[in-house]
């Protein structure tokens, strides 16, 4: 969809939300909020709107950046550029609270937590509970019913408690926050890759054969003649491919500070999947050289990089992964408490629905420099990591060991 069309749809959606809020505030005089409006700024193609909510004394209580789903800027409310823009505007307007919202997922931030890294200023998240893949999805009847019948009333009620000082926040533990951020950032690449796998397999027999060979290596059961089974398998494969690549990226960022490694961001020349992969591999090679270790983490498949290349192959994959890399780069690894950082690696290493029972995954990212190499195995029917190593450390103990690196 053209940029101008996206902008018009975004303006219309924000306008509809504002009208709903005004009616809702009028019907609920017990609330501290009295009105809302849409503020425009910028010019031409850069012209943007934000949603603002005022209390009954006309004080600006809340400002927001709203993006539609299915467009680059609407993949995640935790896109670092989006959050930073929203924070800068809140600073300019001296508004304590601001949120970013891609309709599927809303993240609320408290500007008064200026001594915390930007992501750690998040004091609550609210999810719509529906999957939205394109801008037009916001006009679906089930979506509008959910937004105006449940989502917004729930958010306004919860934010009222915060605004009136009844409750400080709706924050989750830091390790869960960073996992949520990571999952949100990866949602776009996962969906784009899922669609690519399905479409490419239907059109290209050679690719389908390669994909099915890869599926066989995972020992997954599926029925190619059953559309539902094939779609579910493609979604599962997309999650696995994306999470394996993201863990390599996450681990690179975790060790980068200690070893003064260069930025990982994809350069303009990385316009094809192979060039993007070559760039990442060169950076991972630098990490292996500088650390003198961790080759199984950075190169879990050795020189066989078919899955990683495919993960970078959808039409918007390179741009999408660039956003992921830049956002993960803003994770404040040196400021994250030890038990929190260990929890992030422990939880992010085994994505739900992405790994089959009995799969073996290189997990050296969870070990210290001196720890013997080991694998984490998943044993049916649960998804709990089991450490198969000479020394039987528990998974949480191993996870916390990553702290020695940062």
Draw up the topology in text:
Blueprint: H1 3-27, E1 33-41, E2 48-55, E3 60-66, H2 80-93, E4 97-101, E5 105-110, E6 122-127, H3 141-163, H4 174-203, H5 205-218, H6 227-259, H7 273-291, H8 295-298, H9 306-311, H10 317-328, H11 338-348, E7 360-362, E8 375-378, E9 385-388, H12 395-400
Helix pairs in contact: 4-5, 4-6, 4-10, 4-11, 6-7
Report what the structure shows.
- By secondary structure, the chain is an alpha+beta fold.
- Helix content is 49%, strand content 13%.
- The strands form 2 sheets. Strands 1-2-3-4-5-6 form a 6-stranded mixed β-sheet, with helices on both faces. The chain has a 3-stranded antiparallel β-sheet with strand order 7-8-9, with no helix packed on it.
Between the first and last Cα atoms, what is the distance in angstroms?
43 Å
Low-pLDDT segments, ≥5 res: 42-46, 350-406
Strand content: 5-15%
The tally of strands reads 9
Describe the biggest sheet? 6 strands, mixed
String of helices and strands: HEEEHEEEHHHHHHHHHEEEH
Overall structural class, as computed from helix and strand content, comes to alpha+beta
The proportion of residues forming helix, as a percent range, comes to 40-55%
Helical run tally: 12
Tell me the number of structural domains: 2
Gyration radius, in Å = 22 Å
Strand order of the largest sheet: 1-2-3-4-5-6
Using the alpha-carbon principal axes, give the shape: globular
């Amino acid at each position: 969809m053209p940029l101008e069309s996206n902008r018009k749809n975004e303006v219309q959606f924000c306008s509809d939300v504002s009208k709903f809020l005004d009616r809702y505030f009028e019907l609920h005089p017990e609330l501290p909020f009295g009105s809302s409006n849409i503020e425009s700024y910028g010019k031409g193609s850069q012209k943007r709107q934000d949603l603002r909510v005022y209390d009954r004394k006309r004080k600006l209580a809340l400002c927001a950046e709203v993006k539609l789903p299915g467009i680059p800027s609407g993949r995640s409310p935790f896109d670092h550029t989006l959050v930073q823009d929203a924070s800068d505007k809140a600073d300019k307007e001296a508004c304590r609270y601001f949120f970013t919202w891609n309709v599927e997922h809303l993240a609320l931030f408290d500007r008064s937590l200026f001594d915390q890294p930007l992501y750690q200023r998040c004091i609550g998240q609210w999810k719509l509970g529906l999957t939205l893949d394109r801008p037009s999805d916001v006009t679906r009847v089930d979506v509008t019913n959910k937004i105006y019948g449940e989502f917004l009333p729930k958010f306004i009620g919860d934010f009222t408690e915060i605004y009136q000082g009844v409750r400080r926040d709706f924050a989750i533990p830091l390790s869960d926050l960073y996992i949520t951020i990571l999952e949100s950032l990866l949602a776009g690449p996962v969906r784009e890759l899922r669609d690519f796998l399905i479409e490419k397999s239907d059109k290209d027999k050679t690719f389908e054969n390669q994909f099915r060979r890869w599926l066989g290596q995972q020992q997954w059961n599926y029925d190619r003649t059953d559309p539902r089974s094939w779609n579910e398998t493609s979604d599962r494969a997309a999650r696995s491919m994306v999470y394996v690549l993201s863990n390599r990226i996450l681990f690179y960022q975790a060790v980068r500070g200690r070893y003064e490694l260069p930025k990982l961001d994809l350069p303009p020349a990385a316009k094809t999947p192979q060039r993007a992969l070559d760039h990442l591999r060169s950076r991972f090679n630098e990490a292996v050289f500088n650390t003198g270790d961790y080759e199984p983490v950075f190169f879990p498949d050795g020189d066989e990089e078919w899955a990683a290349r495919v993960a970078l192959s959808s039409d918007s994959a390179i741009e999408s992964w660039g956003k992921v890399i830049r956002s993960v780069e803003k994770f404040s690894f040196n400021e994250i408490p030890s038990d929190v950082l260990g929890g992030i690696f422990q939880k992010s290493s085994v994505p739900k629905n992405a790994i089959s029972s009995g799969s073996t995954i290189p997990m050296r990212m969870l070990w210290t420099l001196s720890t013997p190499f080991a694998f984490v195995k998943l044993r049916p029917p649960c998804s709990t990591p089991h450490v198969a190593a000479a020394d039987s450390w528990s998974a949480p103990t191993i996870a916390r060991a990553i702290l020695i690196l940062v």
